Amino acid sequence: MNIDLKGIVIICGNYGSGKTETAVNLAATKRIEGLEVKIADLDLVNPYFRTREARHTLKALGVDVVLPDKKYMHADLPILTPAVAGMIKQPAELTILDVGGDDTGVTVLAALEDFLSKHRVHMLQVINPFRPFTQDIEGCLRIKKEIEGSSKIKITGLVGNANLIDETTPDHINDGYDFLMDVSKATGLKIEFITASSKLIPQLEKTRFSCPVLTMDRKLAFPWTRS
Q1: Which of 9, 67, 163, 224 could form a disulfide with 168 if both were Cys (CB 3.0 to 4.6 A apart)?
Q2: Angstrom distance (rounded) from CA 3 to CA 148
C-alpha cells in the first residue's frame, strides 16, 4: 500500500515522538516516487532534531526545503512566516510543515491561519507509545486536545512511530500498531501510516497492517554524534 497524501500536510506530535524524522522520511519517499515536494522547518522548540539538519540530503533529492535565513538558522523565533506563507499560497503536490512538539510548538500555525484556511489541510499526530505522555489512550487524547487548542486546527489523521531507537524489534512495531488501532477507535481518526526502520521491514508481516508502512532511514544525527 502506498501513502496517499497530497496537498498541505502538517506533521505534529508530542516532544520526542519522532515527528521530524517522520516528516523528513515522508518527504524523501514521496519525492523518490515522483511527487513535487516542499517541506518547511517550523520547529521552534527542539534545537537538536530539526528538518534543517537534513536539508542537504533532501535538496539532493529535489525536495524544496524552506528554512530561515542563514544568520537565523539556530534561532527559536517565528521568523519563517513570510517564506512559509508564500509556500502555502503556491503549494507543491505535497507540502509538508514540520512543527515543534506539544502544544507550544504548534502555536506558530496560528499566525498562518488565514493562509491555511484557503486550502485543504491534513494535520497528522505522530504517536510513539514508548514515549512519556503517550503510553496510554488518555495521554494521546490529551496531547491531541492541547495541540488542536494551540494551533486552532483539527487533527485529521494518525501516524504510528513505535520505536525504541536501536532496541526496536518487530514486536514493538506490532504492539505499537495495535495500540494505534485503539487510539483510532477512540478518536474516529484514520491511521494514515505507520513507520519502521529499513532494517526491520523484511521482518514484518505487512498483511497484519491495514495501513501503509513508511520505511525509515535515519537522516537526523543525534546531537552527541555531531562533530
Answers
A1: 163
A2: 24
Q: What is the pTM of this model?
A: 0.89
Buried b / exposed e over 91-119, threshold 16 CB at 10 Å, is bbebbbbbbbbbbebbbbbeebeebbeee
CA 49 to mean position of chain CA atoms = 12
- pLDDT tens digit sequence for 46-57: 544 456 678 888
Domain that holds residue 22: 7-220
Q: Which residue has the cell 534543517?
A: 52
> Taking CA 121 as the corner, what is the angle to CA 120 and CA 127, rounded to the nearest 5 degrees?
155
Residue found by looking up cell 524544496 in the block: 64
Q: Is residue 214 within 8 Å of residue 193, measured between CB atoms?
A: yes
Up-side HSE of residue 20: CA atoms within 13 Å toward CB?
27
- Rounded to the nearest 5 degrees, what angle is found at the Cα of 41, between the Cα atoms of 63 and 16? 115
